[in-house]
Amino acid sequence: MIARLFKRHADRRPLHIQVRVAQLRQLFNSLDPAPFHEKDLDSDAEEYIVGWAREHGPDRPIRIVIHLPEEEAATADIQQVEASIRHYFNYREDMARRDLRLFLSAGRWRLATGLIVLFLCLSLRELILGLSPGAVARVLAEGMLIGGWVAMWQPIQAFIHDWRPLHQTQRVMRRLSEARVEIKPEPRRPA
User: Fold this and answer.
1) Helix axes of 163-177 and 78-131: crossing angle, nearest 10 degrees
2) For the purposes of burial, counting CB atoms within 10 Å of the CB of 125, is it exposed (0-12), middle (13-18) or buried (19 or more)?
3) What is the domain partition of the chain in residue ranges?
């Protein structure tokens, strides 16, 4: 198993994401009025490409191969298509970076709030235990201890686990923004 994991990380061959369309414009959002090099990808095309990139290794370089009918491929400007796809995923990487930064900023505020609540609960616990040695006081004191740590639950979870999907999305978008794009003509198939 360890050898398989090592092999997976050592594999630097490009991941080829194969996209078949009848017309190049099918890759892009038809409602987007921006110039071609700034157009958004179609949501289905983006989901397909991102899904493949997420599934196959975090560090493998990516090559997007667009299969087009010969007559459509002959009119396609590969530099413009590649620039448009890279521009789109560069924008998505910037958005993912911003989302991660905002998440971590909010997490720091939650952590500060949680620490204040924890401090107050522990202080109240000590006060309760100092004023009354009875069973009710012990129950209230334990409730304060539990409440203080519950207040820390979400900040701890955010900094241990919840930031990773945002970071992974940013990495995938960066890899896609650096992807090589290739157009591959295909002969028209008989009906």
Assistant:
1) 170
2) buried
3) 2-186
What b-and-e string marks burial along 89-115, b requiring 16 or more CB atoms within 10 Å of the CB?
Answer: beebbeebbeebeebeeebeebbeebe
Residue 38: its pLDDT value, please?
Answer: 63
Tokens of 27: 């890759």
Instruction: Enter the tokens of residue 143.
Output: 């409730």
Question: Residue 168 in contact with residue 50, Cβ under 8 Å?
Answer: no
Mean pLDDT along residues 80-88: 89
Q: How far apart are CA 63 and CA 12, in angstroms?
A: 12
Using CA of residue 142, residue 143, residue 144, residue 149, what is the dihedral sign?
A: positive
At residue 58's C-alpha, the angle toward residues 18 and 61, to 5°, is 50
Nearest to 155 by CA among 188, 110, 118: 110
pLDDT in tens, 86-106: 999 999 999 999 999 999 999
- Gap between the Cα atoms of 98 and 92, Å rounded: 10
pLDDT tens per residue, range 172-189:
999 999 999 988 888 776
pTM of the model: 0.74
Residue 156: exposure state from Cβ atoms within 10 A (0-12, 13-18, ≥19): middle
**Stretch (H or E) spanning 136:** helix 135-157
Q: Are 45 and 19 in contact (CB under 8 A)?
A: yes
